[in-house]
Each structure stands twice: as C-alpha cells, then as structure tokens.
Amino acid sequence: MHLAYPAVLAALLFCTGLYGVLARRNAILVLMSVELMLNAVNLNLVAFDVWLRDALHSGQALTLFTIAIAAAEIGIGLAIVLAVYRNRASSDIDRLRDTAETDEAEELPDDPDDESDAEAPEDQATAPAGKAKKAEATA
Amino acid sequence: MIATGVASLDPALAAAASHPGFLSPTGVEIAFVLVGIATLGAALVTVTTRQLVHAALWLIVALGGLAVEYLLLTAEFIAWVQVLIYVGSVVVLLLFGLMLTRAPIGRSPDADSENRWTALAVAVAAAGTLVWVVVDAFRTTWIELDGPAQGSTEATGSFLFRHWVLPFEALSVLLLAALVGAIVLSRRGRETAPGATAPRASAPGANAPRATAPREDKR
Amino acid sequence: MTTTTLAALVPLLPFLGAAAGLLLGRSAPGFVRPLAVLPSLASLVIAAVVAARQGGGPAIDASTQLTPTGSVPIDLALHLDGFAVLVAVLVGLVASCVQIYSTAYLRDDPRYPSYAALVSLFTSAMLLVVYSGDLMVLLVGWEIMGICSYFLVGHYWETPEARAASLKAFLVTKLGDVPFLIGLFALAADTGTFRITGILGSVAHGGLDHPTLIALLLLAGVAGKSAQFPLHTWLPDAMAGPTPVSALIHAATMVAAGIYFVARLLPVFAESGAALVVLAVMAAVTMIGSGLAALAQDDIKRVLAYSTIGQLGYMSGALAVGDRGAAVFHLISHGAFKAVLFLAAGVVIHAAGTNSLAAMSRMGGLAKRIPDAYWTMTVALLALAAIPPFAGFFSKEAVLVAAEHTALGDRHVAPAAAGWTVLVAGLLAAVLTAAYATRLWLLAFRGRGAEAPDHGRQPAAMTSVLWVLAVPTMAFGITVGVITDWFDGHSLTPSLTTAVLSTGVGLVGGLVTYGAWRHTTAIAARTPMGSVVAHPDAEPALVEIEALESHTAAYGPAGDAPDPADPGRLLLGPLHRHAATGFHLDALYAALFVRPVQAAASLVRFLDREVVETYVRGSATGARWLGTAVRRAQTGNVQTYLSALLAGSLVLAVAAVVFANVNAGS
C-alpha cells in the first residue's frame, strides 16, 4: 500500500479537527474536534510504524499511550467544561471573554457573572439557548 | 526537513519503483480509500453539523472508520483498543457532557462561532500545505503489508511489556493523576458553587431586568 | 604669616563671610551685620599689610596646582605687583565702607542678609581678579562679578526698572564676555599658558602670533565690563539698584576690573598698535559722549553713572597710550571720590526725598540739612572736575601727561595718533566734566524754594564713611611722588603745560555752567515741578525705591525731566534731547538686536508651537489610533487567538519548507 494514502487521510482528518477547534462554539464540540486531531496523529503513527517495521514498534506503543492520554484528557476536559458551565451557565467558548480589551474594561469582570447568574434559569427556559447567548455575548 | 527525509528514503525509493503506481491500486488500497472517504465524510459532518448530539454520533462513525483503517494497516490490537476506548468510553463521556451542560436537542443555528470563516481559511490552508508536503515527500513510498502481522495482540503484548514497561507504568500514574484531578475539579465546583452564587442570588430582581433588557433588543 | 598667605586670605575672608551670611541669614539674623562688615574690614587691613610688605618692590609670585587639569593647566596663582596690592587696598576700603553704609541704608530690608552676602561675594570676586596670577582663575572672579551684579542691580526687583536693568547689565556684559573668553583661549594658545607671568614673558620674546586679534577680542570683554562705548549702556540703567551697590560697582569692583585687566596684560595690547588706536578711539568717544550725556541727565545717580563712564574713558585713554601707571593711578583716585559721590548721593536722595535734580533745584536748605554729605560731595566733585590739589587732579594729569608725551613723540609705546586722540578728547572731556560737576552741585545744593522734607539726622554709619573716603579723595594726589614705586617706576607728576591747560578748561567749564545756572534760576521759580517722598522713620532705601518709581511716573523713562530751568539744557541746546537718552544708543540697539531677536524668538515659538508640536501631537494621536486598532484585536475570544496563532505557524512552516527546498536545490 502506498504510504501516501494513510498520510493524506491523516492530514485531512487533522485539518478537519483543526477547523472544528477553531469554528465550534460549544466547548464539548471543541473537545470532539480535538479527538479527531489526536486520531489523525494516531493514524500517522500506525502507518509509519508499519512501513518502517521498527523492532521496538515505537509507533504502535506511542499510539496506545496517546489513546490513554486522550482518555485522560477528555475526562479532565469535561470536568473543566462542567465547572465552567456550573459557574457561567454556558459552555460556549466565545462567551468566555474575560480577557477582552474593551472601552469599558473596568466593568467587564463583574458584568458577565451577574448577567449569566441572574438569567440562567429563564435563559434556558424561555429562549433558544444559543441565540440568547449570542445576543448576550455581543451585548 | 523534506530534503533530509527524501535523502534517507533513497534506498527505499529504488525498491518502490518496482511497485504498482497509483493508477493500478491493489485491493487493500481500494478498501482503504473507500473507508477513508467515509471516515473523512463523517469527520466533516461532525465538525459542521448543527445538532450537537448528532455530532457525537458522527464522531462514532469517524472513529470507527479509523479503527477499520488500523485493521487494514495490520494493527489489530490498536483497532480494538480504538473501538473500546474511543467508541466505547470517550464518546459516551462526551454525550454525558452534552447532557450535563444541557445542550439543546435538535438544530441549534449558532453551533458555529463567528470565527467560522477564519477557521475555514486556516484549515484549508493547513490542509493544502500538509497534503502538498506529505505527497511531495511520500508519493513513491510503499508499505509492505505482507509477512507476519505486526500489530497482533501477541506482538503488541511482547513489545509493550518487553520494551515499554516503564513508560506504561508512568502512564498509569498519569491516568491516576487525571482521575484525581477530575474528581477534585468536580468536587470543588460543587462546594464553592452555592457559596459563590449565594450573594448574587440575593438580589436577582435588581439584576435580571437590567441584564435582560439589551438581550431582548438584540433578539 | 608670609605675604603670600596673607594675600590668599584677602579674597578668602569675604568669600567665607558671604557663605556664612547666606547660611546663617535666616536662622541667626543677629550675626548678619558682623558677618558682612568684619570680613571686609579684615580684608582691608590684610590688604594694607600686604601692600606695605610688597612695598612697590618686585612682583611676588606664588602658585599651587591643586590637581592636573589636562591641556588647560589651571594654577591657583598669586601675582602681587604694585598695581595689585594698591587696587586691593582700594577694593577693601570701598567694600568696607559700602558694607558699613548698607547696614544703615538697608537696615529694615527683609532681603538684607542675601544682599550683604552678595556684596561680600562681589568683593571677594574682585579681590580674586586683582590678586590672581592665572587668567582662568581671574575669569572665575570676572564671571562671579557678572552674576553678582545681576542680583545686586536687581535688588529692588519689585520695580520693573530694576528687573530690566539687572537683565541688561547681565546680558550686555555677557555679550562682551564671549569674545573675551575666546580671546583668553587664543592668548593661551599662542603663549601656551594661562599664567600672567608666563604670558608676559612670552610676549616679551615676541611669542604672540596674532596680537591684534587677541587684543581686540579681549577689548570686547573689557568694554562690556568697564562700560566703554559701545557696551556702556548697562551702566546708567544699573542705577536702578541700591545706591551702595552703585558705589561698589562704580568705584572699586566691576567696572574697575576691565581697566585693571588691560593694565595687567598691557604688553599684550602694546604689541598691536591697531588695538591701541581702537582703544584710544573707544576712550575718546566714551569720554565726550558720556560727558554730554551726563550734562543732560536729571537723575542724580545717572549723572554720576555717566561720569563714571567718562572717567573710565580716561583710564582707557591712559592704557591706549601705554601708561598703565597713570591708568591705575586714576582708577584708585576715581574709586575713592566716586565712592564718596555715590554714597553721598544716597544721603542726598534720602534727605531730599527725590533723585531728580529738577526737584532738588526747587528745594532750599538741603546743604544745611546734610552738612556731611554736602562737604564731602563738594570735595569729591572738585576732585572729579580735576581741580588741584584734590586726588582727581593728579591722576587725570598723569593721564594727560602720558597722552601728551605720546602725541609729541616722547613715548613710543603707542602710536602718536592714539596720543593725540586721547589728549584732545581728554581736554574736551575735562570741560564737560567740570560743567556737569558744577551743574550737579548747583542744582543739588543751591536750590531755592520750599524747605526740603525733614528726614531727621542721617545715621552715623552713613555719614562717617563719607569722611573716611573723603580723606583719600583729598590727600591721595599728594602721594604722587611716593607712589611711583608701585607703578612701574616712571614719574606721574603733572607737567606745567597740561596742568594749566586742563585746570583752565575745567574752570572755564565750571564758570560757563555757573553763568547758565544764574540765567536759568529765574525760570526755575516760575515752573514748579517735582515729586517728593518722605519717610522720616523708614530705612533710606525705601525712599530711593519710591523716588525711582515716582520719577518714571512723573517725567517718563531714562532719567530725563522736562525742566526748562536746567542749565544743561541751555548749554547743550539742540543736543540736549539726544544726550538725555544717551544718544539713542538704546533705541539703536533695540532696533538692531532686540527686535530681530524678538522676531526670531516669535518665529521659533511659531515653529515650536505649530510645527514641532504638530508632529508631537501627531505621534501621540498615531499611537492612540494604533492602540485602538490593536485593542480591536483583543476580543477575548480564544478561538480568534488560536486562529491567528495557527495561521502564523502555518506561514512559518511553509516558509521553512520553501527555504529548505530552495537551499536543497541550490
């Protein structure tokens, strides 16, 4: 088999994951995209390991480790997302803009917290969540 | 980098010349490409669909397709691990996460952020560059898949526990640490959350109207 | 103690007095007066001892080098010849008298401590100039005097006249000091040393390459310091300072420094005949112009100021004919009688309540009210008019004799042209001097009209010093036979021709003025004018300040008064108008220098405000816009940041690949 096939597939998968990381709004979807990127790397590792016929099989060993680490990463990542969600009632990445440089930079640290805490119930109950959040994020 | 890569591949280059070209693919190759197209398609749907839960389900397809690719590359053990861990646990975790964060069921029109077009540009440029570089470097490289399976459970067990014992043990410590970390993160959140929200909840009436007003306007 | 040590103490004591006075002025006001007077008196005594020990013998030289100073070797050197020791005695005497006088004159002044300290510093600087054997050290004293004159002339800085005058004094003298400094360096470059002895030795062996250039450069500084035409304009305006300061500046320190400097380096000037002729012409113009101007002034102090300029012209004339003995002789006698004149003028102003001669001429009984000032001033005016046997006669005679000898070819130090110029101008100036001295005396003490306001008895501190200074005014001339030892050794005694001639023309000038005065007194009675201030209990300086202010208010600026009864007006005729304003030199300078400089300043201001500032503001605005633009990028959105990061690394990766291929291909 040509090495180009798995290599190109891995590259395309990686870039798909890249797009997901950059474009997705929900933190969990971002985590999914990260998984895609990791898997693309895994595919590369396996393909090159098979091609090189390494006596130590370092490619496959590393793939196993990567899978294990990815599992750990997803666990921690989800814990963080849940913690953020609990505090902010949102898991949207582009609403977490505490570091934004605005003209009213002094007001920012307080405002998002207050808004999101105060609104969280009705936010979820009354409105399509995403739209409401988007409006709030731009407000 | 490419230059050195090509230089080191010179002996293989001579051997590769005797292998069939891209216009006369072998059966394995055809299978690999077909599965690969399915995998890539599933991955693309994963990162573009507007239904969050569907994204997780399409991820299963993509990861499963990758497992098949591993099989085609004769890495059996990794293929089964892939199915077990990714399809079996990671995706399940992600689904749990979606549910715990009350992700909406059904289409959410703003699943993608405003950064979408930038992301697309960066991703396409990166894909172009990577494909160009990879093809440029490996277009004549041939993988010999015949002979003893390199990724059978037996072979994997032997190299893993013969050569990679120490990293394996270290990894188990890392997993333990991740486990503890996840628990701590969750626990602390649960303890501090009431304390943190209590003072703010004391005057919801004052905050809510002011905060919701602009939201109504924007909508 | 050795003579050298004593001589070092002379400038040091007033300096220490000044430092102590400045330090203790606030905390211990009781010490201020002793600290002002005692160091000056001690300096006087020590200077007298030094003069006695030196005794007109060969010059004493001593030097020490504190630290090597590279290519400009600066020695703390003393050069004590006859000129130095005698001038130092004069400086000490006048400074002591001024300090004693000031204790009464400025007794209630809140700024007296700093004033006294500055006078001490001034004295110290002058003594440094006098004793110094090194031109760089001399320059230090020279410049300290410049800055002290600025502060002291501006002592009444509440009045605009004093502010303008102090600035003018400083700027005009600095204008001369710039070429002076260049001249000093040129001199040192030619002779290879700043030591006066070294320079004179080098000059004696013909080691001077550019004598005319150096002499002219140095003359510019001398003209500024010694108020010679055309840089004399600061001196009449400096009358806005307190009277004792005027006495100090005019009699012994500042203006004497220039003459003294030329006297010290006379061989350098004598190398260049052109420089001596320039000096002679300068002296002649100064003498005659100042005499005419003095005849037209209304402010008593301005009359004396112009007379100072004229007398300095005599000294310059003596130097121009190469006789430094005569110059320094006249310097010393002039120092004595001019100090008397100024200090007495201070008493007169206090007693009369005005500084205007026009007002004094309409005031009776001033002479009886202040007999001390009356008599001493009479004596000093006689000395000024060069009437025998007072000091001024002998010293002026020495100048005229030297000029005559040069003109007739008996002396060959200077060109005959210089001699004739000085001789003729000197005789003309003698007429004018006698005329304005007579006018001053008649207007001040022979006025008719209402009684002068009663200011009580003048303080003893003020009147006693007048008599102290009157002694040398009367008797110094008698020493002419003895004093030649100190002054290069050649005779200073008057010759019969010049004595008869100058005394004769002096008497003529005086008598003509008297006639004119008799003619005009009738008019004076018909045209009452003048404003008088009376503060019987306040310090005398207060009267002077108010008189200065009211003078400007009553008669307009520049010391002129529209008094038809002025004999000077009768004598000068159409010239009076020009003479009163100092022959419009100030207006000329204003047109030539002040206005162009102001125009240039406004141009620079425009360039700075409108052009440079625009760039400055533009850079600030640009930075702010840039900041706004960059701030736009800080959205807080992690995904945006990550996109930029990845795009950047992509570019880098592509660049690396491309370059690697290019390099591999080449």
UniProtKB/TrEMBL annotation, chain A:
It is found in: Cell membrane; Membrane. NDH-1 is composed of 14 different subunits. Subunits NuoA, H, J, K, L, M, N constitute the membrane sector of the complex. It is an enzyme of class 7 (translocase). One of its GO terms (molecular function) is NADH dehydrogenase (quinone) (non-electrogenic) activity. It is a multi-pass membrane protein. Residues 95-139 are annotated as: Disordered. This is NADH-quinone oxidoreductase subunit K. It catalyses: a quinone + NADH + 5 H(+)(in) = a quinol + NAD(+) + 4 H(+)(out). NDH-1 shuttles electrons from NADH, via FMN and iron-sulfur (Fe-S) centers, to quinones in the respiratory chain. The immediate electron acceptor for the enzyme in this species is believed to be a menaquinone. Couples the redox reaction to proton translocation (for every two electrons transferred, four hydrogen ions are translocated across the cytoplasmic membrane), and thus conserves the redox energy in a proton gradient. The gene is nuoK. The keyword Oxidoreductase applies. Its EC number is 7.1.1.-. It comes from the Bacteria. Residues 101-122 have a biased composition (Acidic residues).
